[in-house]
Design brief:
This protein has 392 residues and is an alpha/beta fold. It is built from 11 helices and 19 strands. The longest helix has 19 residues. Bound molecules: pyridoxal-5'-phosphate (PLP).
Amino acid sequence: MTSRARAEIVVDLAAIRHNVRRLREIAADAVEPGAAAPMMMTVVKADGYGHGVTEVSRAAREGGADWLGAATLEEALAVREGGDTGPLLCWLTVPGDDWGAAIGRDIDVTAYSLGELAEIEAAARQLATTARVQLKIDTGLTRGGCLPEDWPALLAECRAAEERGHIRVTGIWSHLACGDEPEHPANDSQEQVFREALAAVEQAGLRPEVRHLANSAATVLRPSVRFDLVRCGIASYGLDPAPGVTDDLGLVPAMTVRAPLAMVKSAPAGTSVSYGHTWTADADTRLGLVPVGYAEGLPRVASNTVEVWLNGKRRPERGIICMDQFMIDLGDDEAHEGDVVEIFGTGHDGAPTALDWARAAGTINYEIVTRIGGRLRRVHVDSERDTEGGNA
Ligand SMILES: *Cc1c(COP(=O)(O)O)cnc(C)c1O
């Protein structure tokens, strides 16, 4: 084994377990005496928000995830390929999707429309089985989901399909537009539409197992929408779902991106750096070359704004971030080729986080972690269980 540092994404599975446990505590907080605490769904779409779907799924279950959630049917199948057998929901399908594959692997699928319901029922009939179907109502996000005016017809058809025997409605759910803005009036309005939709479900004679509306932000900020199950994505990875709004939630970012310094060079005052010479040294300094670029998912728009961590300090990025590399300012500090640059990570000691990159790029932490990849190798470690600091 070589000890040579490499450009890599390090994912700490102990952090995932911790975050899922912590979110379960948060969701159980303020539950009325005698009432059940909501169940936890860990959302593992987009390759576990860039953290690795198989490893994240396992860690999330260990942390207490009752459910896993995926966007596409293919993602849900990938969760099963990774060995997971527990409750699993997917919600973003297209006509002609392989419903049979999902039904055969005990995946709850989501129907938004009569057309989807018909495809699901036909696939289940062909397999001589009963599909587990959740219904999504569009309460105001205006993305996927059944419009309230079409809801009664969808419910009636579901009830009839249940009678025919190949459909069972297992859940009713919706998704918030402004869960990270607790004062936004859309939250009240969506909650009300959802409650009305649930009353109609009851009236239609459907008896779903779970009703759910909250994402990470709403899980933390709006107890009234926790219902039977909360769906936590970003917070499970240790990232703040509502920066500037939430108090410290005690979450730990699971992803660290780091690379060895490829070169150190002096830059006399007047030296201009990288494409377009967008930065010029106003005093003598030394610069370090970091071999990671926008092909790895770093946002080029963060050039000349973002900072990274090296030898116990934040270091400003200098010049345009290129496809494969960028430069950082070392000042007078000693630094050597091979020293490890932390591009972002847990935020220990004030080191940069995915949120810092997001702010420098005018985007959200979700986009930073889900886009990171390219030529970086990804390794999974477990800071609670590994004895040698890494298992890769
Ligand atoms: C992505 C997603 C979530 C998770 O959202 P976070 O803000 O990451 O917690 C929950 N529900 C649905 C439908 C989603 O698409």
